[in-house]
Design a protein that fits this description.
By secondary structure, the protein is mainly α. It has helices spanning about 15-20, 25-30, 40-60, 70-80, 85-95, 180-185, 250-255, 300-310, 365; strands at about 140-145, 210.
């Protein structure tokens, strides 16, 4: 067992817990990142045990309890592409790794020898053996997809001190999430950049967020059955880094039409005659470094639905029951498509839209920190 016989030799002072309970403590303990007084030997032991704890978490996350690789798509890979997927799911998969271009970031582990666009093998269809039979569906990179600012994000309202005197976001709606750019500048809310040589690259990645795995993106409790609003009970999720998107249908539609239906407004202010997330996309929170490989894909409505069908095959538990998948005790959401205007994946969540207030300029502590963004961030 990690730490046995080690951590007991570290003599933590009685006020340790009080220090650890202070949000942002290092910033108020005279700038010290190590305000708990320990001897060098004790600090070495504590750091070693912490690293071993992190190793344990890493091994747990790699175990079948978390990374089961038991989805319908995994069954398809093991069958070497024979059967398993329905016609709609297979069509969605070919779009996913074809004109929808999802596979450029959410790597699917297939071979790198797609057949030409001739005969019965359309462009992107892979007839080769899988290069990876347990693909993670992420490139571990970062990109800016141009998500609108989400005014329902509680972070924008954490502009006054809490009971501990901690202010989560002193900039209010003057905050702009520069993502990786903020980290490289060691900016507000970010861990310190461990390598100052990286800072110079911040302007090239302003707005970029880490590419998440597409695995289990559609996972829901058994009793809720889906993430998509409709006749069945569904489990409401929020997608992307700020939760602006409420369904997989909206997610795919955003990738497909962001540029074609983009308008210079903020959320809650789409023009009359348009519908937000359907025929109107508010402007990006950060327009620098937009990923232009998506945004105008030319998919039909049916093709969008096929991509959604494929994404739903990435949920673990198809071949082997996912651990504790029956332990959810909350409530599913229900709606009546005949009477509820928002009871569809396309309009899901629009009943809770609120107007974005008039935005102040980006706070200088975020947007005026060298190296400056490649173009001003509004």
């Amino acid at each position: 067992m990690w730490g046995a016989g080690q951590i007991e030799s570290v003599h933590f002072p009685p006020f340790t817990e009080a220090i650890c309970d202070v949000p942002g403590g290092a910033s108020i303990f005279n700038g010290s990142a190590t305000p708990i007084p320990l001897s060098p030997q004790e600090r070495t032991i504590a750091a070693s045990v912490f690293n071993e704890f992190a190793n344990s978490l890493d091994q747990y996350e790699a175990s079948a309890d978390v990374s089961a690789f038991s989805s319908k798509f995994d069954a398809y890979l093991k069958a070497q592409g024979v059967g398993v997927l329905s016609a709609a799911e297979l069509a969605g998969y070919n779009l996913f790794r074809g004109i929808a271009n999802c596979n450029s970031c959410h790597l699917d582990g297939r071979s790198t020898a797609p057949t030409p666009a001739t005969g019965t093998a359309p462009n992107g269809m892979d007839t080769g053996a899988p290069a990876d039979v347990t693909p993670l569906f992420t490139c571990f990179g970062s990109t800016n997809e141009g998500l609108p600012l989400n005014p329902r994000n509680a972070f924008y309202y954490q502009s006054t001190p809490d009971i501990f005197g901690f202010t989560g976001n002193p900039y209010g709606f003057g905050y702009r999430d520069l993502g990786l750019g903020t980290f490289l500048r060691s900016g507000p809310g970010s861990a310190p950049n461990p390598n100052s040589d990286w800072t110079q690259y911040a302007p090239a990645v302003d707005g970029a967020m880490q590419v998440s795995s597409a695995r289990n993106v559609a996972m829901v409790p058994k009793q809720c059955s889906t993430t998509e609003a409709g006749a069945a009970p569904y489990f409401q999720k929020e997608f992307f880094h700020n939760g602006y998107i409420k369904s997989l249908k909206q997610l795919v539609h955003f990738y497909n039409t962001r540029d074609a239906l983009g308008m210079g407004v903020t959320s809650g202010h789409c023009p009359p005659g348009t519908v937000e997330k359907v025929t109107c996309w508010p402007m990006p929170e950060v327009s620098n470094n937009l990923d232009m490989t998506t945004g105008s894909l030319g998919l039909t409505d049916e093709q969008e639905n096929q991509v959604v069908a494929f994404l739903q095959t990435l949920t673990d538990g198809y071949t082997t029951a996912y651990p504790d998948s029956d332990k959810f005790t909350g409530q599913c959401k229900v709606c009546n498509p005949a009477t509820d205007h928002y009871c569809s994946p396309s309009l899901q969540g629009n009943d809770t839209l609120i107007p974005t207030p008039t935005l102040p300029p980006c706070a200088p502590a975020i947007c005026d920190v060298p190296p400056l963004p490649s173009k001003p961030i509004k």
